[in-house]
Amino acid sequence: KALDSGWLQAEVARAGSESYEKIERGERKVVGVNCYEIEETPYEFEPVRPDPRTWDLAMASLEKVRCNRDSARLERARNDLSRALERGENTMPATIEAVKAGMTVGEVGALYRDFFGCWNVPSIPGLG
Fold first, then answer.
1. 84 lies in a domain?
2. What is the 3-state secondary structure (H, E, C) of the chain?
3. Strand pairing partners for 31?
4. Is 55 inside any structural domain?
5. Structural domains counted in the chain
6. What is the sign of the dihedral through the CA atoms of 52, 56, 59 and 64?
7. Residue-wise over 71-103: b if at least 16 C-beta within 10 A, else e?
8. Is 97 a member of any domain?
């Protein structure tokens, strides 16, 4: 109920706003933000630049996993996980077996989404 009604999101927003205001007024001290600030940059650093090939390498690895898995074992594991979801059973053993059978995180997630649907954050009036 707390999630569906938006109460939890409203409380998080209210607490965050209250905390921010206390910091701004100096009632709450945050080192480096409103006290003990330094004027100069203490050190220089180079930002991390990811290898541009990372995506292509990951996709190639994923394709290799998909091509080399036992399709019969994968289908059994997928069916077992679906059955566990439908019966309201503990899905952890079936999920672990599905992953061992080669089911990807995306495929497991899709199965869970198909069963449970997707949760959307309710809109909270005044927090636009």
1. yes
2. CCCCCCHHHHHHHHHHHHHHHHHHHCCCCCECCCECCCCCCCCCCCCCCCCCCHHHHHHHHHHHHHHHCCHHHHHHHHHHHHHHHHHCCCCHHHHHHHHHCCCCHHHHHHHHHHHHCCCCCCCCCCCC
3. 35
4. no
5. 2
6. negative
7. eeebeebbebbbebbeeeeebeebbebbeebbb
8. yes
17 Cβ neighbours under 8 A, 6+ residues apart:
none
Are residues 117 and 124 in contact, defined by beta-carbon separation less than 8 angstroms? no
**Which domain covers residue 25, as residue numbers?**
1-41
Classify residue 127: in a domain, yes or no: no
Q: d(Cα 25, Cα 13) in Å, to the nearest integer? A: 18
Q: 115 and 79: one domain?
A: yes
> In this model, does residue 126 exceed pLDDT 70?
no
Residues 70 and 37 in one domain: no
Contact partners, residue 62, CB within 8 Å, separation at least 6? 104
pLDDT for residue 124:
67
Q: What would the pLDDT profile of 54-93 be if each residue is shown by its tens digit?
A: 999 999 999 999 999 999 999 999 999 999 999 999 999 9
